[in-house]
Amino acid sequence: MILDLLLFLGGLVVLVTGGHALVNGASAVARRFGLSSLVIGLTVVAWGTSAPELAVCLGAALRGQGDMALGNVVGSNIINILGVLGVSALVTPLVVSRRLVWHDVPILVGLSAAVFVLGYDGHLGPVEGGGLFLAGVAYTVHAIRARRSVGVADAADRPRAKVGLTRAGLEVAVGMVLLVVGAHWMVSAATSFARFLGVSDLVVGLTVVAVGTSLPEAAASVVAALRGQRDIAVGNAIGSNIFNIVNVLGLTALLAPAGVPVPEPALRFDLPVMIAVAAACLPIFFSGHRIARWEGGLFIAYYLIYVSFLVLQAEEYALLPAFSRVVLFFVIPLTVATLVVIAWRELRRSGPA
Questions:
Q1: Measured distance CA(18)–CA(186) in Å, rounded
Q2: Which of 20, 149, 210, 319 could bridge 34 with an S-S bond, Cβ 3.0-4.6 Å?
Q3: What is the domain count for the chain?
Q4: How far apart are the first and last CA of the chain?
């Protein structure tokens, strides 16, 4: 257990170091090519921090564990919104680009719904996977072309000492490698801790693996938020979710011999939750185009509720029905009513006098 503890702490240090390197290099690349930090967060940083999900999903699918691949993508997407953005907003309130609200978040909601529709027959094959991957390529090209030189002079892009392109590219590459290595170390250590405590493999897969592969996103977003580069923090989370669907899940379905199975429980619960979490960004992001600390706390609270549900369901506890009723008939309606009131006040405030 001492070795596992050292591995966990070492992974944490490597993650933070990788997050700093990736954000620094990506910001320098943005300035050098006239790209806004939001574009870099949605593309370069998102691609890099999605690498662990791609490695885990492809490996699982090639071993014949395609359902684990789907679970990892769905779980990571839920964590990226509720956990990564929640923690980042607690560190510092996040300013959200209007274009992100009206452009990228709807794309994320649409892609999340597309996975549900494409997988409704219980399977994602090469055709569906190829379609998702091509959608990812088109999105990347469009994001760069549409936003070239947009927002470069934002507060998030305050000039600092010029960095050569070679050095900036090296920082991005090193940062990506460190994030993947750090996440792998922390997942290995956390899995050992969970099994030592007697937690089942199912719960470990639903929680530890999904959280572990989202650690790069968390590290990059929190570091960006601390450095005042809030567009990278938000863009990374949204962009990573988009790339998890179009690249990670798309490539896995395209390359895996048996494709990716979509089990009935995922269609009944996990995929609808992923869609709902993506859709929940719209009213929260819309309220002043920022994520306040209390909204970050709300995201984290909902993630804890989600994990609690998974644990109760996996271990078949008798408390599950009562827990579900409280969430369904009290917590969710109260949250929806609060967000509707906030959105309505914001509409009135921003409307014509």
A1: 14
A2: 149
A3: 1
A4: 64
Residues in the chain: 353
Rounded distance between C-alpha atoms, residue 180 and residue 55, angstroms? 9
Q: Is 290 in a helix, a strand, or coil?
A: strand
Q: Which residues contact 158 (CB under 8 A, 6 or more apart)?
A: 228
- Threshold 0.85, pTM exceeds: no
**pLDDT digit string, tens, across residues 156-166:** 444 444 557 78
In a domain, 252, yes or no: yes
Which residue, among 352, 210, 348, has the nearest Cα to 270 in the 3D structure? 210
| Domain-located, residue 337 | no
CA dist list (Å): 169 to 42, 287, 341, 346 = 17, 36, 45, 41
5-41: per-residue pLDDT in tens? 788 788 777 866 776 777 677 777 767 777 776 677 7
The residue range of the domain holding 255 is 2-296
Distance CA(53)–CA(215), nearest Å, equals 10
Q: Where are the alpha helices (DSSP H) in 63-164?
A: 66-79, 86-91, 98-99, 105-118, 126-147
**Which token pair is 152?**
């470069």
- pLDDT at position 108 over 70: yes
User: Domain with 278 in it: what CATH number?
Assistant: 1.20.1420.30
Tokens of 153: 């002079």
In DSSP terms, which residues pair with 261 in a beta bridge?
A: 123
In a domain, 157, yes or no: yes
Residue 245: Cβ-neighbour burial (10 angstroms; 0-12, 13-18, 19+)? buried
What is the mean predicted confidence (pLDDT) over 64-87? 81
- Residue whose token pair is 């959200």: 96
Is residue 124 in some structural domain? Answer: yes
Q: How far is CA 213 from the centre of its chain?
A: 10
